[in-house]
Amino acid sequence: MPEAEIAKRGGAKRYRTIMPKKGKYIHIAIVPKAGPRGGHTVAGPVHEKKKIKSGPAHGKYPHHSPAKPL
Length: 70
Prior knowledge:
Number of strands: 3
Strand content: 35-45%
């Protein structure tokens, strides 16, 4: 749901995040609906996690320094 439509309904009561696949996530907005029945779950767009560039000191062990030649 677009942010404009969420704002039109009075704003989201809370947000939830689910991960359907590794590296992707969906923000779920709980927004009020008309009438006395309470909130309604509305799914937002699918987002992807940002990939971290790995350099010589950003690999599996980032606290280790790269190997020095003998």
